[in-house]
Structure formats: C-alpha cells, structure tokens
Amino acid sequence: GQQVMQIPQYQHVQEGEDFTTYCNSSTTLSNIQWYKQRPGGHPVFLIQLVKSGEVKKQKRLTFQFGEAKKNSSLHITATQTTDVGTYFCAGINQAGTALIFGKGTTLSVSS
Amino acid sequence: DAGVTQSPTHLIKTRGQHVTLRCSPISGHKSVSWYQQVLGQGPQFIFQYYEKEERGRGNFPDRFSARQFPNYSSELNVNALLLGDSALYLCASSFGLDNSPLHFGNGTRLTVT
C-alpha cells in the first residue's frame, strides 16, 4: 500500500540552528500537507502544497514540494524553543479517501 | 467558533470490553475522519465519513466501527478490546471530501488493561 516516509525520526538542535525534515512517498501525490504536534497535543495543520516544485514560506518555515510530486521538505531557519514538537507530512491516498501520515520527525531544541 | 470536540478525554477499559468515542466536528464541516495514534507514531487512518456514509476505511479489524449522525457528529465503536488498542484516538473534521486540511480534536486517550 501507499507509504509516506520521513527522515530523520529525531533531531536535536541548539537554539538558532537550522532544521530540515524530509518526506518521501511511494506514489505520486496530488498534494502534500504538513502538520505540527506539540508534546501532549494534537496535530495542527501548517500548510498544503499542490503544484510540482512549489515552495511556500511561513516566517522561518520553508516548505517545498518535489518536481515529481513524490517528496517534500520542511526547513526551519534559526530554530526557537517554540518550534519543539513532531512534524508530520501527509498525503492523500490513491482512492482519495484518506490522509496518510508519515511517522513524523520529532524536533527538540535546547537553549 | 468551537473546534473539534471529543469525549471522553481519557478512558480506562478492560480487555474484552467495548468502548464508544464521540466527536463533534467544527460547525459547517461535513466530513469526519478517525485516526489512531500510538505513542511515537503518526496517526493511522481508521475511517472517513461524509454525509453519514462511510467513504473510506483503513486497515483495521471489524471490531472497529463508526457512524455519522445527521448533525455530522460521529461515534467510533471498538468491540472486544485488546491491549494493543491502547492509543490516542483522534477525530478530525474537514469541510468536504476534497483535499481540504484536517482539523483535529484533542483526542481520547484509551488505556486497555
């Protein structure tokens, strides 16, 4: 079945360092969505990418969708302690009935 | 506007029992999806309901069932509970069946002993 894989599983950085998480799908995606889950919280929608090669920015966060629409990345510039949490990418399954989540990348930031 | 609300927030059950989890979507949202999240993993899709009909089902046994009511709220039922059913159960609503983003509730933490 369709799989969405993320690397790395964990990442620890010093505050002010950059962070990147990568997402790869076994199939072409119609779109990709990114969510953030704070410890003890629930996933919160960050952004959706639809077009091949699309790049979107939200303040210090930069999201990219690959040309083949099978991979994506999230880059955070100059991390802050508020960036702590698990970042999930998710793609719609081929039947169009479900959002399939990766296992997530858990980011920890020390000050 | 209220977000997605789920009840109860926590639940402890014994193996073999059944459980019913409830979810109220954001007002105006017609689609409700259920996810199971085990510690350290991403949410795993269980069901999607739209306009009271099941539109999608994940790889879960028949012990899992759900329904959606005319007011778009939803229930997830799990029978013959197993220890492995212990997880955070997340409900998410979205406006339609398109690729619109999911809005998650705070979840129900189910512990099976």
Number of DSSP strand runs of chain A: 11
User: What pair of chains forms the biggest interface?
Assistant: A-B, 25 and 23 residues
DSSP strand content of chain B: over 45%
Q: Calculate the terminal CA-CA distance of chain A, rounded to whole Å.
A: 41 Å
Largest sheet of chain A: 6 strands, mixed
Question: How much beta of chain A, percentage-wise?
Answer: over 45%
Oligomer: heterodimer
From the spread of the alpha carbons, the general shape of chain B counts as globular
Q: Report how far the terminal alpha carbons of chain B are from each other.
A: 37 Å
How many strands in all of chain B?
11
Structural class by SSE content of chain B: mainly beta
Low-confidence stretches of chain B: none
Radius of gyration of chain A: 13 Å
| Secondary-structure element series of chain B | EEEEEEEEEEE
Helix content class of chain B: under 10%
Order of H and E elements of chain A: EEEEEEEEEEE
> Which residue ranges of chain A are poorly predicted, with pLDDT under 50 across at least 5 consecutive positions?
none
Molecular shape of chain A: globular
- Please tell me the overall pLDDT of chain B: 95
Question: Can you tag this structure with a few keywords?
Answer:
heterodimer; A: about 110 residues; mainly beta; 6-stranded mixed sheet; about 55% strand; B: about 110 residues; 7-stranded mixed sheet; about 0% helix
Describe this structure as you would to a colleague:
The complex is a heterodimer of chains A (111) and B (113). Chain A has 111 residues and is mostly beta strands. Chain A contains no helices and 11 strands. In chain A, strands 2, 4, 5, 9, 10 and 11 form a 6-stranded mixed β-sheet that branches. In chain A, strands 1-3-8-7-6 form a 5-stranded antiparallel β-sheet, with no helix packed on it. In chain A, strand 4 and strand 5 (44-49) form a beta hairpin. Chain A is globular and about 45 Å long. The termini of chain A are far apart. In chain A, 36% of the residues are buried. The model of chain A has no long low-confidence stretch (mean pLDDT 95). With 113 residues, chain B is mainly beta. Chain B contains no helices and 11 strands. Chain B has strands spanning 5-7, 10-13, 19-24, 31-37, 44-50, 53-57, 64-68, 74-78, 87-94, 103-104, 108-112. In chain B, strands 2, 4, 5, 6, 9, 10 and 11 form a 7-stranded mixed β-sheet that branches. In chain B, strands 1-3-8-7 form a 4-stranded antiparallel β-sheet, with no helix packed on it. Chain B is globular. The termini of chain B are far apart.
